[in-house]
Amino acid sequence: MDILAIGATVVYFIAIGIISYFGAKRTKTLADFVAASGRLGFWTYVLLMIGSVTSGMTIIGVAGASFQGGWANLWERVIGPPFAISFCTILIGYKLWNLRKKFQMLTIQDYLAIRYEDPKIIRIIAGIISAATCFAYLIAQYTAIGIVSEAILGIPYSLASFIALIVVIGYVMTGGMFSTAWTSLLQSILMILVIFISAPIIISWMGGWIVLNELVSQVPILQQTIRGVPSTYLFAQFLDKPFGPADVPLVGWAYNLTLFGITVPLGLMVAPHIVNNVLCFKDSKYTKWSPLLMYVLCVPIILSTSIIGIAARVAWAQGKLNISSLVLEGGVTVAWNDMAFPTIAKVALPYGILMLLLPCVLAAVMSTTDRLLVTGASNISYDVIKNAIRPTISDKGIKWINRMVILIIGIFSWWLSLTPQPMLAWFIWAALALMLNCFFWPIIGGLYWKRMNKHAARWCMIIGFITTSLSFTIWGKNIIIPGVLAVYAVVPGFIASTLTAIILSFITKPQSEKVLKETYTGPFLRRK
């Protein structure tokens, strides 16, 4: 084990502990815990949003996906998470901020209950689905910690992820949203610095930008002659192309459209742990410049990790590094794509930078994990129990329920992460498929379409959840018509949810004109 790297990680944990202590002191009420009472400043909000999407998926998953798909998955890097947080602020944040002040809203379920005049049923449906999707998203975060800790420090996968679990549960239970936002400020800064420094060094180690691009096109030959694997192994023939044929999964243009053009940007835009962030900042002026700043910072973060993943694929094909392998069912052995970043970092980065990689991954993971835990706990304690089942429960009672939910969700999701998948990204994409098909129409339709009503909102969430779950159960990740088309398994759920929302909106009565006016519903951003 590397003593200095462990020391850097310990220093990081101490810094998080200090920040969490002050966050806990600031947390006095339920509103403080759930939404920081709407008091987050400009930079805290911007970096909270960036930290909420640039998770272990970005540091580990994006590099792993690029190791496998190369430039063919470029679309996610540009129109995925950066688009989601920017347009969430523009399309959702601006309207919700004004409604939050007017109705004292703490969660997106507060908005749904008011907009659809449905104080109980829609809260329960949305709260349970939201908690379930947060749970699925969490599994991948612990996976990322385990991967990097084992690759760099030699700490066993399960032990490293368990340590991270204990730390994040501790500060979320005590400090809620204030601790989450303030720690995300530090974590996002650390993550941005390490990634921006690492990418140029790794590109230089590969011989420079021009050399790397030339080598990408040679991967099919390199991996066949040096590695002894077929030239088509892991989409090698498409690594230097913008996308593959329509019938090829993951890299095909149709697959890119349904996964990186629909699922990722729209799913993240309405994801509860992202949407709830827009109820936490203190000045509506933040919606003017924060979206641009988020995009400008987020795109290079994700592009940098993509390039690192591509560099790892080239270096692997050249025989310059070995990626740990994983044996799947049937005895098929594939490269463990998610090891791409830590493996090439260990070879290419100077020791001082490498020492900071584990704290960087910890920062990426915790900046998302803590937000997911706060959201999941609030869904159950505040939305379902306090507002739908037992309104008379005290804040003290809610506080204890929050702690129990955080503990249960955190431990159970960590336990499921002990059996990692060959590519972490699939966990995230599946969770985003559920978020998209359950929340897109109730939120976006609710804000901008007057015909959208409670029947449409309720049933498109239920139908979207059921259809998406069945789709993944029946087809797995890919729906393929051989020789014709390959699309991501989000499609049936998206079609079912959309049709349900539209049909029920037209055959049932809209909400009262009074409510539509009070909730600023309509195809506009600013009501004159």
**Biggest sheet layout:** 2 strands, antiparallel
Name of the CATH superfamily: Sodium/glucose cotransporter
Dominant shape: globular
pLDDT under 50 segments (min length 5)?
Answer: 326-335
Distance between the termini: 63 Å
**Average pLDDT number:** 83
Residues in helix, %: over 70%
How many domains in all? 1
CATH top level is Mainly Alpha
CATH topology-level name: Sodium/glucose cotransporter
Quaternary structure annotation: single chain
List the strand order in the largest sheet.
Answer: 1-2
| Beta-strand percentage range | under 5%
Structural class: mainly alpha
Main location: membrane
Subcellular location: Cell membrane
Organism: Thermoproteota archaeon
Keywords: Cell membrane, Ion transport, Membrane, Sodium, Sodium transport, Symport, Transmembrane, Transmembrane helix, Transport
Summarize the structure.
It is a multi-pass membrane protein. The chain has 528 residues and is mainly alpha-helical.
Layout: helices, strands, pairs:
Elements: H1 3-26, H2 30-35, H3 42-53, H4 56-69, H5 74-79, H6 81-103, H7 108-115, H8 121-153, H9 157-205, H10 209-227, H11 253-269, H12 272-275, H13 286-318, E1 325-327, E2 333-335, H14 340-348, H15 351-354, H16 357-389, H17 395-416, H18 425-448, H19 454-475, E3 478-481, E4 485-488, H20 491-507, H21 513-518
Antiparallel strand pairs: 1-2, 3-4
